[in-house]
Amino acid sequence: YQLNPECRICYYRSSACDLEPVLSSRPISFSLWGQEYELFFSKLEAVFLELSGAKDIFRYQTRRLLLMIPVRRIIYLQSDLKYVRVHMDDGSSHDIYGKLSEIEKKLKGPFLRIHKSYIINTLYARYLDKRERVLYLSDGSPIPVSAAHYEHVLTYLSDVC
Asked: pLDDT digits over 140-149, tens only?
């Protein structure tokens, strides 16, 4: 929690235990006694509602998957035919079956389309090589900027910087 103040802490025990005085954030806590399954499921539903209401979470649902990622962890999205790869700040990635244009409609926050195959999180943009038309991200990734998006990217970056 000290490294990430937006972290949500949830714990579950089979017997009552109050960890709140020990933790630095307000946890979501509950315990389950043998006869209280309805209470357990109502508390669990409350946890999911709190998470789903967060503004800084990218949510994408398919038939098999509900993906919930903090926006600040996404570096960029890359289209690869029928899949979109979500590149994360820890070097991992998630593949989503779908079109980049569909996912773009669901994105909120600091995202910018710079190419027909790329959307970047502007929090990670470091500099634009105008001659090569390449945008470099904080992790060193060079992302091409298409001619169709170049003026918009240049204007956006000029306004932000």
From this structure: 999 999 999 9
Q: Residue 24's pLDDT is what?
A: 47
Q: Please provide the DSSP assignment of the chain as one string.
A: --S-TT---EEEESS----TTTSSS--EEEE--TT-HHHHHHHHHHHHHHHHT-TTEEEEE-SS-EEEEEGGGEEEEEEETTEEEEEETTS-EEEEES-HHHHHHH--SSEEEEETTEEEEGGGEEEEETTTTEEEETTS-EEE--HHHHHHHHHHHHHH-
What percentage of the chain carries pLDDT values higher than 70?
Answer: 67
pTM, two decimals, is 0.67
The answer to whether 135 and 142 have CB atoms below 8 angstroms apart is yes
